[in-house]
Amino acid sequence: MGRVAAAPATAQRIRCAWVTADPLYQAYHDREWGVPIHDDRRLFELLVLESAQAGLSWLMVLRKREAYREAFDGFDAERVARYGGRKVRQLMGNAGIIRNERKILAAIRNAQAFLKIQEEFGSFGRYQWRFVGGTTKQNAWKTVKELPARTLESDAFSKDLIARGCSFVGSTICYAHMQSAGLVNDHTLDCFRYRQIRGRAR
Question: Which of 24, 28, 139, 155 is least crowded, fewest Cβ atoms below 10 Å from its Cβ?
């Protein structure tokens, strides 16, 4: 009996159409984007990076992520919340990150609000996941053109964060954050990650 032929080594995975050929972008899509996150340090990392992205590309931010991790003390919200003028000046001189003073100051204010939310709800994750009822919202987009830039849930999330003193957290930024953290499954139906994410959602 003949052996079953193996799949060609050149066979390519079908990914969401927004993913470029950049290896870093592909790795982020394949391993991270849309995976449900409940760990507060990782959620704070996304909050800082998504806020820094405003008006820029996510790939640019991904390329700077390691520099951000070093500059912002491993995304330790307690330490970031205590940053003062000297640290801000230091960050403004760091060519590895996006040197926008308003965004740097926003990261500090957002860290302070983040800690208050943790105190009130027990964790930021518990607070954040309330906006989707505690479980990943499973969408079923056929093409990336169908993906919304904002939703009623991201509107509510943004409004609440702003009321708590956060900035650079408009609804579009909040929806990108929700996509990244797996609050919504926005992989398109033809993407190999769609069913994988659907199977691990919680």
Answer: 24
CATH architecture of 36-200: Orthogonal Bundle (1.10)
Q: Is 114 left (phi over 0), alpha (psi -120 to 50) or beta?
A: alpha
What tokens were used for 198? 């659907």
Active site residue 129: no
**Domain residue limits, the chain:** 36-200
Tens-of-pLDDT digits for all 202 residues of the chain?
344 333 343 347 899 999 999 999 999 999 999 999 999 999 999 999 999 998 899 999 999 999 999 999 999 999 999 999 999 999 999 999 999 999 999 999 999 999 999 999 999 999 999 999 999 999 999 999 999 999 999 999 999 999 999 999 999 999 999 999 999 999 999 999 999 999 765 5
50 catalytic per annotation: yes
Closest CA to 53 of 42, 64, 43: 64
